[in-house]
Amino acid sequence: MAEQKITEAAVLALFRDEKITVSRGAQLLGIPIQDFMNLLYANGISLDDETPEEMEENLQNLQKLFKPHKKKTKVI
User: Fold this and answer.
1) Is the pLDDT reported for residue 26 higher than 90?
2) Is the residue at 24 inside a domain?
3) Helix spans in the chain (H)
4) Does 70 map to a domain?
């Protein structure tokens, strides 16, 4: 539990210092992007300071998450 809190604090600090994006923070913590965004909010960290490039990266990652998956059918 303590290790998780330390990791979480480090990732939040990296985000706060603009060293990583939302999607990278979520990836480092192994949680969905929305959960990371909620964690930022819970810790009083704003998303408003993102650059256009960071917003674009986050948008692309969100689109990947919600992209419909094609069902593979087995041909017999």
Assistant:
1) yes
2) yes
3) 2-16, 22-29, 33-42, 52-66
4) no
Decide: residue 21, CB within 10 A, 0-12 exposed, 13-18 middle, 19+ buried: buried
Q: What domain range includes position 60? A: 2-64
Two tokens, residue 50: 């993102």
Query: Quick one: 67 exposed, middle or buried, by C-beta within 10 A (0-12, 13-18, 19+)?
Result: exposed
What average pLDDT does this structure show over 12-28? 93
pLDDT in tens, 30-50: 999 999 999 999 999 988 766
Rounded to whole angstroms, the maximal C-alpha distance in the chain is: 56
Overall number of domains in the chain: 1
Mean pLDDT of the chain: 85
- The sign of the CA dihedral 4, 53, 45, 65 is negative
